[in-house]
């Protein structure tokens, strides 16, 4: 796989006036995030075909054949045509297409995220926002679809270019109305929903996604929203690995939103010292957070 400096880049998004709409620029080489690589991608592709092939028209069946070249024959995402996102739209958004097909598709995208060329698919979707409009509904999806989506978002931190795509701030109108949405807003929603989710797998993906987001430079309002979810998560008794991931993220968010996040910790609690003694590595993360809390007034 190419190094961080060689990775494929998505063209910069711009406003109508030509101004760039990008997340904060990376100031260091990409740090690979926590990812999940236990796949039987051939079976996932077979499951996709089995569940949707009878629903596909001739053109959509051709997309399945091209996906086989991409995933099974390992010929790269470049074999997929420009109209591939229309096929994704059918899988993700047609109400009469089965949930099992959506799960299989997202798992295949998660598998493909290991390679730099996953950005080719993401770039094709910049106009229609098929993937993000589907992910925006995560709180209304079946649990198994929530789990597959959360894992996919984690795996996009495999490469720098794909992880930056998650942070784009340009907005579009939400389907069905409501506030405009953006990639970073959807990514934040997926992270929060997963961390506070109803299954151990979903929570595990959520804690990994928090840790992954902490490797990036995100804006203060995002830091605050993620921190509130972590504090709610800390009300329980999570295992050490998940505490470590989230404590590391909380420390990073405190360092970015130097006033807002520490004030949230003081107001909402619990204080990080709740987990003192859990492990040496957690203790090392707690110390600087507690030191920063001591310097920040409540109001």
Summarize the model shown.
This protein is mainly alpha-helical and 299 residues long. It has helices at 41-52, 58-72, 84-93, 99-112, 118-124, 130-135, 143-155, 160-165, 183-195, 200-213, 220-233, 240-256, 260-268, 280-293, and strands at residues 171-172, 181-182.
Tell me the layout of helices and strands.
Layout: H1 41-52, H2 58-72, H3 84-93, H4 99-112, H5 118-124, H6 130-135, H7 143-155, H8 160-165, E1 171-172, E2 181-182, H9 183-195, H10 200-213, H11 220-233, H12 240-256, H13 260-268, H14 280-293
Helix pairs in contact: 1-2, 1-4, 4-7, 7-9, 7-10, 9-10, 9-11, 10-12, 11-12, 11-13, 12-14
Describe this protein's structure.
This protein is mainly alpha-helical and 299 residues long. It contains 14 helices and 2 strands, in the order H-H-H-H-H-H-H-H-E-E-H-H-H-H-H-H. Strands 1-2 form a two-stranded antiparallel sheet. Helix 1 runs antiparallel to helix 2, helix 7 packs parallel to helix 10 and helix 11 runs parallel beside helix 13. The longest helix is centred in the last third of the chain and has 17 residues. The protein is elongated and about 65 Å long.
């Amino acid at each position: 796989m190419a190094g961080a400096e060689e990775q494929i880049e998505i063209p910069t998004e711009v406003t109508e006036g030509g101004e760039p709409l990008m997340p904060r620029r990376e100031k260091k080489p990409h740090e690979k995030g926590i990812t999940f690589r236990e796949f039987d991608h051939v079976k996932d592709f077979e499951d996709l075909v089995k569940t949707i092939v009878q629903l596909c028209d001739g053109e959509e069946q051709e997309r399945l054949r091209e996906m086989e070249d991409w995933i099974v024959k390992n010929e790269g995402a470049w074999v997929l045509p420009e109209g591939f996102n229309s096929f994704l739209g059918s899988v993700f958004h047609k109400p009469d297409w089965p949930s099992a097909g959506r799960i299989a598709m997202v798992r295949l995208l998660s598998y493909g995220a290991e390679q730099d060329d996953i950005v080719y698919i993401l770039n094709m979707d910049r106009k229609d926002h098929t993937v993000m409009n589907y992910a925006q509904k995560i709180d209304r999806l079946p649990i198994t679809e929530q789990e597959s989506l959360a894992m996919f978002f984690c795996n996009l931190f495999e490469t720098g270019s794909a992880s930056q795509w998650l942070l784009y701030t340009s907005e579009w109108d939400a389907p069905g109305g409501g506030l405009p949405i953006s990639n970073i807003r959807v990514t934040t929603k997926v992270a929060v929903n997963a961390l506070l989710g109803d299954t151990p797998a979903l929570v595990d993906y959520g804690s990994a996604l928090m840790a992954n987001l902490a490797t990036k430079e995100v804006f203060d309002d995002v830091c605050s929203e993620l921190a509130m979810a972590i504090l709610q998560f800390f009300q329980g008794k999570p295992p050490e690995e998940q505490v470590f991931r989230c404590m590391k993220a909380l420390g990073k968010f405190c360092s970015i939103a130097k006033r807002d996040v520490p004030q949230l910790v003081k107001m909402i609690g619990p204080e990080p010292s709740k987990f003192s003694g859990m492990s040496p590595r957690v203790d090392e993360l707690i110390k600087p957070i507690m030191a920063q809390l001591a310097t920040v007034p409540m109001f």
